[in-house]
Amino acid sequence: MRALLLNKEPTFNASVSAIAAPVLSAGDVRVEIDYSTLNYKDGLAITNAAPVVRLWPMVAGIDGAGTVLESQHPDWKAGDAFVLNGWGVGETHWGCLAEQACLKGDWLVRRPAAFSARQAMAIGTAGYTAMLCVMALERHGVQPVDGEVLVTGASGGVGSVAVALLSSLGYRVVASTGKLAEAAYLQALGAHEVIDRAALSAAGKPMQAERWAAVVDSVGSHTLANALAQTRYGGAVAACGLAQGRDLPTTVVPFILRNVALLGVDSVMAPRALRQTAWDRLARDLDSNKLESMVEEVSLDQAVEKAQALMAGQVRGRIVVKIAAN
Question: What angle do CA 158, 259, 227 make, to 5 degrees?
Fold first, then answer.
């Protein structure tokens, strides 16, 4: 089969190669991959920009969507449509930028009937993470009447889906981006206002003028610190990324004087039931027309080049990777 294979000997290399098809002993479900995608973590792995991969050689791809070919897992049978996100796939277990994969049935989620494999990968881990963020804010009690919701990194994968979801749910969304040329794109997704990320990305005071009822942040570092400092009393910030950095240069002041909640959101090891709920909510709440406006499709042979562009900040929205050669 064809797969995007990562090797580090004698030097790092990422290329589409012909390798032996996986056998069921590598998991308990063997699947055919119709589409995969490129998330930020995929970009890190494929460009070797960070030590994401823990086992070598590695087939890249933390996401996949397709059909079960054979199964030894009681919940899955041949012909079932699935979605796979995370669980260390593409890091410690061979991934889904390949024609086939052997996976654990406990990792798979039933693909909602509303989505094709292509649409599921247009959402991917980025969009599924955005849904987890929205659900975390809802559990905290945030409602549209509470005020503006800030989305940082808004032209990226998580941000684009978060803007679309929140606007569809009735929130007034303010989108922060370093690509002001994408303002029309973000407004079409539902942003009421677009602001320059420079307003949030430099060091700021730990307590600033209150503005945001809630925040979805995929950036981290000073951006997250400033978002916390500007969140209104009793508000919440859902943090899921570190595009600017993994540091958090702030103080306890927003938490103890404004009762602000910092909600950590992990998508990689999230329980299966929570994943299924998120995907079912995406099927209900995400506008398919808005989703399509985010998508750029590439072939498996183009995935390395597109991953390089992703890491260079030259990509907006979501990248889907068609696995079949024709």
Answer: 35
Q: Which pLDDT score, from 0 to 100, does residue 4 have?
A: 97
Residues 106 and 138 in one domain: no
SS3 label, residue 280: helix
Half-sphere exposure of 18 (CA within 13 A, CB side): 1
The residue behind tokens 């054979």 is 70
**Is the residue at 118 inside a domain?**
no
Rounded-to-integer distance, Cα 21 and Cα 112, Å: 27
Whether the Cβ atoms of residue 286 and residue 127 lie closer than 8 Å to each other: yes
Q: Do the Cβ atoms of 267 and 86 come closer than 8 Å?
A: yes
- Token pair in block for residue 134: 């929205």
Residues recorded for the chain = 326
Q: Model confidence over 98-131: pLDDT tens digits? A: 999 999 999 999 999 999 999 999 999 999 999 9
The answer to the question of residue 277 being in a domain is no
Q: Which residues pair with 175 in a beta bridge?
A: 151, 194
Strand bridging mode 81-85 / 109-110: antiparallel
Question: Which contiguous run of DSSP H or E holds residue 119?
Answer: helix 117-140
Tokens at 142, concatenated: 């945030």
Question: What pLDDT sits at residue 10?
Answer: 87
- Beta bridge mates, 71: 29
Residues 135 and 230 in one domain: yes
Burial of 202 by CB count in 10 Å (0-12 exposed, 13-18 middle, 19+ buried)?
exposed
Q: How many domains does the chain have?
A: 2
